[in-house]
């Protein structure tokens, strides 16, 4: 599902260059659940954005579902994301003027689904919000907004779902419920799940953990030899 080869990412800072990621090699198979963990500023969110095609690396190659997204134009990457990728963000990213139902319907309508309302209603019922269909984000709690975001992310049955701190803004009980939901949908739909998280319990529930330290990625705390995939 995901293959990364010799990925390095740098950003220009004044007269110098900051290297955020260095020589990353990894593979993630279809249906896996993977947590990306590390200290703040270690490059976790940068890596997630690169894997999702939201940015392009300075060097190296990224393949998503067999497609070389690191060599694509922004329009080509956007088209691929619309067809195969779902997102769950810490800040929810719901459209404030739309109801919960309309937020979940939106990607279905953009995909040309004629039964968008029925599908969105079923998804919201699946995440426990069947009675909140007509509520706008400001009428929902943080946990409810995150569940709407998860329903929206799974609406188009993506092959891969990226989540950036999906429980970061939630209390422990609500975070546990969101974690349960993500893992259940991962199992039931076979969707590959890749997430950045500081939540140790959520990370432990994933099949694999990738650790970032000083821009280098290792699995289970073991730094691989140069050029060896983790």
From TrEMBL:
The entry's keywords: ATP-binding, Nucleotide-binding, Transport
SMART domains the record matches: AAA
Coiled coil: none
Gene3D superfamilies attached to this UniProt entry: P-loop containing nucleotide triphosphate hydrolases
PROSITE patterns: ABC_TRANSPORTER_1, ABC_TRANSPORTER_2
Protein family: Belongs to the ABC transporter superfamily.
Protein name: ABC transporter ATP-binding protein
Organism: Marinobacter halodurans
């Amino acid at each position: 599902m995901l293959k990364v080869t010799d990925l390095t990412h740098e950003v220009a800072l004044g007269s110098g260059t900051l290297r955020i990621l260095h020589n990353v090699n990894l593979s993630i198979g279809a249906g896996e659940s993977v947590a990306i963990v590390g200290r703040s500023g270690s490059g976790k969110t940068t890596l997630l954005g690169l894997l999702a095609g939201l940015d392009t690396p300075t060097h190296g190659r990224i393949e998503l579902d067999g497609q070389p997204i690191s060599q694509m134009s922004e329009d080509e990457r956007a088209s691929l994301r619309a067809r195969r990728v779902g997102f769950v963000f810490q800040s929810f990213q719901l459209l404030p003027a739309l109801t919960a139902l309309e937020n979940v319907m939106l990607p279905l309508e953009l995909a040309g689904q004629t039964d968008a309302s029925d599908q969105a209603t079923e998804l919201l019922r699946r995440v426990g919000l069947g009675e909140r269909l007509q509520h706008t984000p400001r009428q929902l709690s943080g946990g409810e907004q995150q569940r709407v975001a998860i329903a929206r992310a799974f609406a188009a049955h993506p092959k891969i779902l990226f989540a950036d701190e999906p429980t970061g803004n939630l209390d422990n009980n609500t975070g546990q419920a969101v974690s349960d939901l993500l893992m259940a949908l991962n199992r039931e739909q076979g969707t590959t799940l890749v997430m950045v998280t500081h939540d140790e319990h959520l990370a432990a529930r994933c099949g694999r953990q990738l650790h970032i330290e000083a821009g280098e990625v290792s699995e289970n705390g073991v730094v691989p030899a140069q050029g060896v995939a983790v």
